[in-house]
Amino acid sequence: MTKDIDDSEFFEDDEISKSQVKRDMIALQELGIKVMSLNKQQLETLPLNETILAAVEESKRVTQHEAKRRHAQYVGKLMRQADHEAIQFGLDLLDPSSEAHSQFFQQVERWRDRMMDNLSDTMAAFLELYPDTNRQLLRQLATNAGKEATKKPDQWVARKKLFQLIKTTMTAAKQ
User: Fold this and answer.
1) Which of 5, 35, 72, 84 has its CA 20 to 30 A from that of 63?
2) Local structure of 45: helix, strand or coil
3) pTM: predicted TM-score of the whole model, two decimal places
């Protein structure tokens, strides 16, 4: 009579294969390469620590092919210690073709439209979520945007400014 052996006691589920570790490192290196290609204004929107920012600035001075490759590996190594999921989300927000970018802008548009329709209730809800918002400016822009609703789209000034204020506020809160 043979006894069935339970393999689960020999193999832990938490073990990660060497291949998976390598795939993860390559993904972080590719994330680092994307970050290195951003301009200064875009870099400011990402949650990067000082070490990574310094390495990205240094990458702008590296010109030789092999040196760029090694530097990309170094930035990838630094990414292991950073919140790479938050950095990836920030990159997705910058990429107009990403789903996160589309969802974010749709959310901003919904806030703007709701604020134009029902100012007091929507503004209270928005300020509860984003208390650092300039209340007076928000109320003024929403009121003016509501008045602009009858104008042609090329004449919407307050509506565009309201959109920018909401977008800036929501972006600052995500960092």
Assistant:
1) 84
2) coil
3) 0.60
* Fold of the domain built from segment(s) 18-94: Diphtheria Toxin Repressor; domain 2 (1.10.60)
Distance CA(122)–CA(5), nearest Å, equals 62
Q: What is the pLDDT of residue 70?
A: 92
Rounded distance between C-alpha atoms, residue 73 and residue 20, angstroms = 17
Which CATH code for domain 99-174?
Answer: 1.10.60.30
Tokens 């609703």 correspond to what residue? Answer: 149
Q: What residues does each domain of the chain span?
A: 18-94, 99-174
Write out pLDDT tens, residues 43-73: 888 888 899 999 999 988 988 999 999 999 9
pLDDT at 7: 52
Residue 141: which of 120, 116, 124 has the closest Cα? 116
**Burial class of residue 78, CB neighbours in 10 A (0-12, 13-18, 19+):** buried
Measuring CA to CA, which residue among 50, 13, 54 is closest to residue 36? Answer: 54
Q: What span, in angstroms and rounded, lies between the C-alpha atoms of 168 and 93?
A: 13
